[in-house]
Specification:
The protein has 409 residues and is α/β, with parallel strands linked by helices. The chain has helices spanning 24-27, 32-41, 71-96, 110-117, 133-138, 143-151, 160-163, 174-188, 212-223, 254-258, 270-285, 315-322, 326-336, 342-364, 384-403; strands at 125-127, 200-205, 228-234, 237-238, 241-242, 261-266, 291-296.
Amino acid sequence: MSSPEYWTQPRAGEPDAPHPGVPAATAARPTAEQVIAGLRETDAGGADLVQLLTPEGERVHHPDFDIDITAEELRGLYRDMVLVRRADREANALQRQGQLGIWVPLLGQEAAQIGAGRALNPADMVFPSYREHGVAWCRGIDPAQILSIFRGTDHGSWNPLEKRFHLYTIVIGNQCLNATGYAMGQKFDGVVGDPDGEATIVFFGDGATSQGDVHEGMVWSAAYDAPVVFFCQNNQWAISEPVERQTRVPLYQRARGYGFKGIRVDGNDVLASLAVTRWALSECRNGNGPVLIEAFTYRMDAHTTSDDPTRYRLADELEMWKLKDPIERVKVYLVHQQWADSEFFASVQAEADELAAQLRDKCVHMPDPAPAQMFEHVYSEQTAQLDKQRADYLSYLDGFATSAPGGEH
């Protein structure tokens, strides 16, 4: 693995070495061989992948991103991943039973999200897309609040400023603009520049990197040295489009074009995700941002419950990634280290089942919202136009009451 400085400071002796006074990130051009190698690495881990725990559960060390972790801390990460996966599976089942309009699974991406989520400081701000159920868990958000969005009973019921976790963004990539603007504000407010400073992190998928909003966010964040971590969960498929159709180089290498640091981490390795995200957030808090992280992972379920991946994805591919399961490798390591026994694993599973039971009960008993609720919380201050829309809609609904036989609905 090259150092984090590699992609902004190419090595001496490379073709097209930068001329004096010319920024390295914009002066160096890859050779044809490098382009071909990059294409091959778009869908493979590659030599630059940061990994601290192998799929076989073996601990490996890294010269730049190694971390010390206690048995208690690792048991906590394992518990997080098991509970988040159980909540995700229960939500998937609830959708199949008609209790949710749609669900967006995270199966297989637990390590990327828990590792990144546990790297955050309380003051850091998070901008999610619509799949960050694990990060939401780390910010103390009840999974039932996530389900209420997909059940259609509200648009998000937590306070983003209190939780430091913005509402879900459905428009692909749009949250990168919101995060960049927020991070610029952190810099203008003077809360950046030392280890106790603030940072912003924004989550998106590999498909979002083809959206203009992501590009614009990276351009602006680079121009203003905004303290934002762009956390791309490369789950290999933008619905039915494989990642190699979207990029000619590994996604993390795109950071070089913007003039900031980019790094690829094993997104199925919770230790590596934790270590790299800690480093990236520290860089931003100290005024050395932005940073792009590509978490190399895999979505083991459908894009959403409206999708059928068997129409475009080979079964062998899924079976291969099951061998890289992010939870199983931690379990193996815990056992080998004698840091956990069967009683611990049974207790976590029981806690997960209880969480799922509570989640189901909360979901099926969510009250139907009043018709006018959709007009609330649209703006911080109500507008005359919105007042008129609400009045017109309620009048429209009243028409059904008076026109029906007997004057009833």
